[in-house]
């Protein structure tokens, strides 16, 4: 930790937003900095403090970062005039880039986003030329029929042996069979308001726009949501589109959705840390893709089970 400096910062409209700057002690900040923020309604530290660990790993390589809470989450106050989650996120991300420009001198940004944060990061990147790189973990996925059937079968076979299965089965029955249990989605960050077809159209159009603008994109998918992967399965119909060939795609079977295990954290930090560093300083050394190719072809039974 001695090679990094951490500085809390208030920023944004009315200083409503709270974040933590992490900078290398022995090196002047570069022109590109990294932004990290919430995964859903979780605090800016990320699941299992993965954002904190990534910030220190990047600082050790000379990369400065800002991890922060979006407006209305964690230590950040709600932003006035932001009626929905996506608007609040875009305003918060733009304010984060503004403060990083002033304090770090950064002119361009790599954003690391997880889960629901993927849509928010893509949204701001599509309209702000300061974003030059996106690392997106477990965001949009469009597995087609074969992949969905195989996933359902493997989960069905694995589920009964998992200690959480009885509780999950009971809650499923209550939701679907008992009138006393509402099936309406809960309001807030986890409400799915758009149909799959709309998400797919938005994702394809936005991703193509980003690639055409030369924004570097890393797509990562965990073994929690998908038990196997062949031929970029999670991209579905987009996997052979010309604009997706410029992406770095990685299926991480040993990493779970909330990076619980030590091994999963090591793999996540190595992949994202290398990729962000290369985007900030140029790809001085090429990462070997052998392990990724092998991982993408693996279809072993999952060690954990998550409800569909």
Task: Provide a descriptive summary of the structure in words.
The chain is α/β, with parallel strands linked by helices. The protein has a single domain (4-297), classed as Rossmann fold. Helices cover 36% and strands 17% of the residues. The protein has eight helices and eight strands. Strands 1-2-4-3-5-6-7-8 form an eight-stranded mixed beta sheet, sandwiched between helices. Helix 1 links the parallel strand 3 (32-36) and strand 4 (65-68). Helix 2 (85-104) packs across helix 3 (117-125).
What's this, in brief?
It contains 8 helices and 8 strands, in the order E-E-E-H-E-H-E-H-E-H-H-H-E-E-H-H. The protein is α/β, with parallel strands linked by helices and 308 residues long.
CATH architecture: 3-Layer(aba) Sandwich
Helix fraction, binned, reads 25-40%
Percent of residues in β-strands: 15-25%
Mean pLDDT: 82
CATH superfamily placement: Alpha/Beta hydrolase fold, catalytic domain
């Amino acid at each position: 930790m001695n090679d990094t400096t951490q500085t809390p910062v208030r920023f944004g409209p009315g200083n409503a937003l709270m974040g933590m700057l992490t900078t290398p002690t022995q090196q002047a900040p570069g022109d590109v900095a990294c932004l990290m923020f919430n995964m859903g309604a979780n605090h800016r530290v990320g699941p299992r403090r993965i954002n904190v660990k990534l910030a220190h790993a990047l600082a050790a390589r000379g990369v400065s970062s800002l991890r922060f809470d979006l407006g209305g989450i964690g230590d950040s106050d709600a932003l006035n005039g932001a009626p929905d989650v996506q608007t609040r996120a875009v305003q918060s991300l733009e304010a984060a880039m503004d403060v990083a420009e002033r304090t770090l001198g950064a002119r361009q940004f790599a954003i690391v986003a997880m889960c629901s944060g993927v849509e928010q990061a893509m949204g701001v990147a599509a309209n702000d030329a300061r974003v030059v790189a996106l690392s997106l973990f477990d965001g949009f996925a469009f597995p087609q029929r074969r992949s969905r059937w195989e996933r359902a079968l493997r989960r069905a076979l694995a589920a009964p042996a998992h200690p959480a299965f009885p509780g999950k089965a009971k809650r499923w029955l209550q939701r679907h069979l008992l009138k006393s249990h509402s099936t309406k989605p809960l309001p807030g960050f986890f409400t799915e308001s758009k149909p799959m077809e709309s998400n797919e159209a938005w994702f394809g159009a936005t991703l193509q726009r980003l690639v055409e603008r030369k924004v570097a994109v890393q797509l990562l998918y965990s073994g929690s949501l998908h038990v196997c992967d062949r031929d970029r399965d999670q991209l579905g119909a987009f996997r052979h589109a010309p604009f997706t060939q410029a992406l770095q795609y990685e299926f991480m079977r040993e990493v779970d959705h909330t990076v619980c295990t030590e091994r999963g954290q090591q793999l996540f930090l190595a992949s994202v840390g290398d990729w962000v560093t290369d985007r900030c300083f140029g790809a001085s050394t090429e990462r070997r893709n052998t392990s990724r190719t092998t991982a993408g072809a693996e279809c072993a039974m999952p060690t954990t089970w998550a409800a569909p």
